[in-house]
Amino acid sequence: MDINLLVNITARAWSLKILALLHEGVPGRQAPLLAATGAGRSAFAASLDHLAGLGLLERNPGHGHPLRPEFRLTAQGLAVAPYASAILSQLDGEEDFALIRKSWTVPVLALITRPRHFTEIRTGLGAITDRALSQSLGLLEDHQWLSRNFDYEARRPRPLYQAINRGQAISQVFV
Q1: Tally of domains within the chain
Q2: Which Pfam families did the record assign (predicted)?
Q3: Are 84 and 109 members of one domain?
């Protein structure tokens, strides 16, 4: 999967969950999707609009009430939804899901399928700031989804980040 698309998808907290639910066969109407996600109405609506703007969802033409439309995955959405479903299948509880909903968690895990330095991760993500990346890495380390070791063979010792435990299972989705 393209890392820029992944960054765009995860910019909204509920986008991955919506894609996974549609992939798993939950009806594309707003009420069943909203109930299945557990999201608030405004955050849910923003995520739906965001996915439609990315071209991953579309309104099902000719079906449903105009004020309560039905949504379906586009061809590109059909290609991306299995990744979302595979990611969410690795989670164990609400605490894990809260971590996944953060903007940079999934893109960072997608890049550390093998040990990487900070600058490699930052370069791979493009638009991320040093502070946001540092916070994301620290949060993932606190949850024991990645480990930070030091590369002493480098001219100046530098941290080397590697996915472990649940973080490794999620990063393997992208291999």
Answers
A1: 2
A2: HxlR
A3: no
Pick the closest to residue 84 from 163, 139, 5, 140 (CA basis).
5
| Spatial separation of the C-alpha atoms in residues 96 and 13, rounded to whole Å | 13
User: Which residue shows structure tokens 């472990």?
Assistant: 164
Residue 100 lies in a domain: no
pLDDT in tens, 49-96: 999 999 999 987 766 565 566 888 999 999 999 999 999 999 998 999
E strand or H helix that includes residue 157: none
Exposed / middle / buried, residue 36 (Cβ in 10 Å: 0-12, 13-18, 19+): middle
Distances (CA, A) of 150 to 134, 135, 146: 16, 18, 13
DSSP codes, 16-58:
HHHHHHHHTT--SBHHHHHHHHT--HHHHHHHHHHHHHTTSEE
